[in-house]
Amino acid sequence: MTATGAVDAAGLGLTLMHEHLFINLLREYRGTGLIQDFPLVRSELDRYREAGGVTVVDVTPAELTWGASPDPNGVYRPGGGLAAASAEHTRAPDNVAALRELSVATGVQIVLGTGYYRDPYLASEDFDRRSVGAISELLVRDLCDGFAGTSIRAGLIGEVGADQWFISAREERNLRASAQASRRTGAAISTHAARWPVGRQQLDLLLEEGVPPDRVIIGHCDTVNIPEYHLDLARSGCYVQFDTIRPGSEFALETRVTHVVSLIRAGFIDRVLLSHDVCGRDHLTAYGGGGFSYIPERFSQRLLRAGVDYGELEHILVRNPRRALSGEAG
Known about the structure:
CATH topology: TIM Barrel
Strand order of the largest sheet: 1-4-5-6-7-8-9-10
CATH architecture: Alpha-Beta Barrel
Number of strands: 10
Largest sheet: 8 strands, parallel
């Protein structure tokens, strides 16, 4: 399911599984944490398409979508100000509308995630008053009927996760609600598990709730430099997502190459996903970053030089995302 409707899984093509197209992270990153410039993001996606990209998965959670559109008040652009923030909206409706418009303008397919983020963003009276079942119902609505205020449906759940090395009480409720929605719809769950190996705890909780391991994507694994952690997750049958791949230090890039190659050579190529997690202006090519085209243009060349062949590269960038999003076997 994409912003412009359902597509055949075979047509997903090269897919980035963890990105943010319009996002408001100003609560944590005052200088760079806002992306809502339509022409800017359009130019970045045009470059991605020219590099062979076909699909982008936007996993911007509820709390990061308000104010993350070109004109939230709807003064100058139609589609803005569609609805005020409320407990019934898991994405700002103008954010959803802007993503559909972006997809039409660029020809890039955009899959939208639904869900709530992590602490400290969950710390609100509104969230605390909701039961696990009530949260789950909102996610199921987004997946089956469409985001409130729109007819556009979500294609997966995420990103949801944990802020630190443990799962807080609020985060546990959020993950259990996500699990219930996944069981009812078959949608994959994409998690936030940065810096610490908390993805193992996330996976255990989701398995406890009855979610099949191949419907779980543990995110930000490349920010945890523990190969045994990656192997443990892969053996458990979930997806191991290396999704903060950006230009930077040689050490950081070579470490990511090593992690990817190690899982392939250990026999877990089916479990590997790649992405950039573009979430700040400094991550865009216009501001000196790698944008959405860094993996197809640059990082894939590093993998090839490290001994990954073209068939294995296609497996990771095309076949694995297709299976993760569609649930198809093999």
